[in-house]
Structures are given as C-alpha cells and as structure tokens.
Design a protein that fits this description.
PH-domain like; 5 helices; elongated
Length: 164
Amino acid sequence: MLFQSKFVLNREHFEECFDQSLLLGGKPTPRYKLMAFLVFAGGAIILFSDQQKTVGLFIVSLSFVEYFSFRYRRAWWLMRQMWSKNSHNTITLTISEQSIKTESLYNNNELLWDEVKHEVETPKGLMLFLKDGAKNYLSKSSLNEQAIAFIKLKVAQPKTEEHL
C-alpha cells in the first residue's frame, strides 16, 4: 500500500496533538516538592547569607516559573510550536510498506515499522509508541480508513530480529 496526504502544521493541528496526547498520559500534577524546596532554599539564602540577596531571589523566582510552566503548559507548548521553523508549513505524509515518512521544507523524517512498539487509537488520531520511548501522533484528519487499518496491521505484525 502507498498512501500520501498533505496537511498544514497550524494552531489547530498543534492543539489536537497536545490534547490527544494528554488523554494517554494520566493526570499531570505540579511538582510541589520542587517548588517548596526552591522557596525554602531561596528563603534560606536570603535570610542567612551575608552576600547580596539576588541569588536567593532568583531561586525563589524559579519556583514561580515552575508553577506557571505547569499552570499554562498547554499555552506554553503551543507557543513554542507556533514559533518553530516548521509552523504553517505543508507536511507531506507518506505511508508505505517500509515506513511512515513526513517531509516538509525544513524537516524530513522516516519512521520504520520495526521502530514502532505499539499504537493507541484516540478519538481524533493514532499515537505511535516507539521502542526508544518517543511518541508520534498522526491525526485522523489526514488519514483515511484504509490507511488507519494498514497502520494497525503493520504495527501488529511481528518485528524482524535485527530490531528487537
């Protein structure tokens, strides 16, 4: 089978990627212990140091950065993606017997089927879990039913010995 599709890396696509990957990750929680440690360490430096209080204030401010990075993680992640070089570029997705390829102006990737450990279907796409621990998301909006069935079939097939 050879399937080819094009899509644009726009805000809607990035929002879908973030939201669908969040469905599979469990409930994220803030790192309260880290924030408390930073406040305590910064406060101790401010109170007990004879030097300038700048280092202590900097460490305390890191706890606020940690809090806001959790609180606004979706907006922060989306902003970083929108600032990327590949944002608003057209991506060509090619699914073949050997691999999944994504090609754009700045980035070309090839994901061999042997590198995929398993897949999970979400309401809007497929999350591919790789053997190296990475994850790749494919939106159903850029796939048809035959391509989805083919991906599931290829991932379910036994892998070759050299990649196990």
